[in-house]
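To assess whether ligand presence alters the predicted conformation, the chain was also submitted together with flavin-adenine dinucleotide. Input:
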Amino acid sequence: MKTQVGIIGGGPSGLLLSQLLHLRGIDSVVLEKRSREHVLGRIRAGVLEHGFAKLMREAQVGERMDREGQIHDGFGIAHDGRVDRVDLKALTGGNTVIVYGQTELTRDLYEGRDRLGGVIVHNAEDVIPHGFDTHRPFLTYRNGSGAGRIDCDFIIGCDGFHGVSRQSIPRDRIRTFERVYPFGWLGVLTRTKPVSPELIYARHERGFALCSLRSPVLSRYYIQVPLTETVEEWPDESFFEELRRRLPREVASALETAPSIEKSIAPLRSFVVEPMQCGRMFLAGDAAHIVPPTGARGLNSAASDIYYLYNALLDHYSRGDSGGLENYSQRALARVWKGQRFSWWMTTLLHKFPDSSAFDQHLQQTELDYLFSSPRALASLAENYVGLPF
Ligand SMILES: Cc1cc2nc3c(=O)[nH]c(=O)nc-3n(C[C@H](O)[C@H](O)[C@H](O)COP(=O)(O)OP(=O)(O)OC[C@H]3O[C@@H](n4cnc5c(N)ncnc54)[C@H](O)[C@@H]3O)c2cc1C
């Protein structure tokens, strides 16, 4: 098979890029390791920046998001037995975020690809990118119908943190930067009315908690747990009991519970690879960078990569201008690192670190006091949360 852009990974990054390119007459093929059901069974991000939403509309897949997504003007930070509100709209001069689950967004993207007749090869095993240092890169893979080969002009690695694209780049051509946090988030999804119409991030001496939501009838709750713990050690009753302990009394007493319909533990990691390209292969989204989910930057950072790549490929194919491709890594990384900084800062502000000293805890407390006593400090938080421009 021959195409212009060979994309590894059918998550949000790969699908969005493929859809945007298709609408501008640029051909692509997506190779996805898993079945569609598997990809759509993953519960992940939920908070979208307006920049992301704009791209979804441009990709003609934003209709359901605009209908069902909820605009959030603010969120709460619970600490010392109370909830302080971060008024995003007032602090940023009108900016907000949209709460719309990654699962739903991915479903919309698949439907968009199907509508236009986009090619997505599912269950593509042993995908290998070849020749990206030459002008004739190609991809090989295996699936139910045998071995396949895709010749293309460019390879885009959108295959997440554990994918093959980044790992195929020779070690001496990239540098990686990483911080692994000594805890994870245990997340539970329930069919209940969310405890609050806005997200509540909670700092507590027992550990961090988050009250999030996917819709008016679907709640997503998280608690910080040590990495050594497993889902089996957390039956629903224990989870909700612990969650209640970490929330201010009036929030805890309003919490509705129901049997979990999904439960998983996500480790927390900060990671960046530099550069985000090697010859004719470009990395985007989680293939190139990971953030801890505090601050909701992961999916949104993927969106800005796709924006830069899409425009760079458009310039290349429509005007023969390859400047955008040459500068892609530099441009994308400038924003990626800002997202890293913010995610690290939010994580440090709100989590309990096992090795933190009394001094560290005082600093954490002081940081919160400062935040809610300084409109400028709060405005900086809000500016980052709604997303820096791209
Ligand atoms: C448990 C969890 C919770 C999260 N919560 C949040 C949150 O609350 N807020 C937020 O902003 N972000 C969150 N994130 C991050 C967010 O989900 C990611 O940033 C986002 O999924 C990135 O999209 P992507 O398309 O780049 O990568 P992915 O979604 O990882 O998609 C990569 C795709 O590539 C496929 N693939 C992998 N290897 C191969 C291969 N060798 N060949 C072919 N295909 C391959 C995978 O099956 C997958 O479908 C969370 C992530 C996880 C894991």
